[in-house]
Design goal:
five-stranded antiparallel sheet, single chain, two-stranded antiparallel ribbon, 7 strands, alpha+beta, 3 helices, Peptide Deformylase
């Protein structure tokens, strides 16, 4: 089931999400809904706070090619365990901040630990777009948006555009 995505500015996007204590069927269904919502948007990552659920859950799939098989990842309680000294700059966007993009610098490689939907602890190294995406989504769990990395003027400009967009949408 597709879920509505919360748009910035919204106080729920600035809150720290709570750890998932135990995996329930409800949480597994939520993860499935999040994947459907992400693919439909379309996006390559989605964090539970973006649909109004303040739990430490993210989904991502950075496979872009038509010929490649999708690789959906569901991560409960993801955490960055190690980062490379090397840095990458990617133009980031966000489903909660549609049509707004900016270059963000992050570690080029990260090692992430999480619990998968079967309750199995997992660990993997990510690089390139996958590294950027997983860091972006984990930031959401900390109440941090990609625009928080930008200079104040640029961040305020994007926020003003979002306020106007939300106002226009409310008017119908």
């Amino acid at each position: 089931m597709k879920r509505p995505i919360i748009l910035h500015p919204d106080p729920r996007l600035k809150k720290v999400a709570a750890p998932v204590a135990d995996l329930t069927d409800e949480l597994r269904a939520l993860a499935s809904d999040m994947l459907e919502t992400m693919y439909d948007a379309p996006g390559i990552g989605l964090a539970a706070p973006q649909i109004g659920v303040l739990s430490r859950l993210i989904v991502l799939d950075c496979v872009k090619g038509e010929t490649e098989s999708p690789r959906p990842l569901i991560m409960f309680n993801p955490e960055v365990l190690a980062v490379s000294d090397a840095r990458n700059i990617y133009e980031e966007g966000c489903l909660s901040i549609p049509e707004q993009f900016a270059d963000v610098e992050r570690p080029a490689e990260v090692r992430v630990g999480w619990i998968d939907q079967t309750g199995t602890p997992r660990e993997e190294e990510f690089s390139g777009l996958w590294a950027t995406c997983v860091q972006h989504e984990i930031d959401h769990l900390e109440g941090k948006l990609f625009i928080d990395y930008l200079k104040p003027m640029r961040r305020q400009m994007i926020t003003r555009k979002m306020v106007k967009m939300k106002r226009d949408m409310a008017r119908g």
